[in-house]
Hints:
It holds the Pfam family Flavin_Reduct. This protein is mostly beta strands.
Amino acid sequence: MKQSWKGAALLNPVPPVLVSCGSMERPNLITVGWCGTVCTHPAMVSVSIRPERYSYGLIKASGLFAVNLPTEALARAVDWCGVKSGREVDKFAALGLHAEPGAANPGCPTLAESPLTLECRVAQTLPLGSHELFLAEVTGCLVDEALLDEKGRLCLDKAGLIAYSHGEYRALGRRLGTFGWSVKKKRRKP
């Protein structure tokens, strides 16, 4: 039996991401739980950020940010960057992390410790209520070569990425299938 609750944003688990923004002289990180893919061509993502957050103003001013996918090793940093403000502390320095300029957007910092970074340029913003949605074109991707197989194919399962669900950070588990496996025809044995 199911209970009927009032409307709530209960779409979980989600990928927690570390969004880097600001400048190379004063880089900042913010943890964002509301991030998603919105379009394939052109490649676009969205992030939702409260206007009172320090990073919101940095992104509005520059029109640039980077979505850095965190690993299990970065889980503590993900949590810490979600509760500390860049107004008061240099998050990169406090956590011993390293900012690097993007390849597609050199003026925007990226997180060196992240195995995969999406460099983004804001295309549109939508005020939604408690948050403003930044729709952004992915202008480039920085991919750790350790995540590539011998054919150059991206193997994100090697990264040890994490998920966030109802106040808990979780390691991603075992593979259940691949795209299209539910309809794939079995080969007949000769």
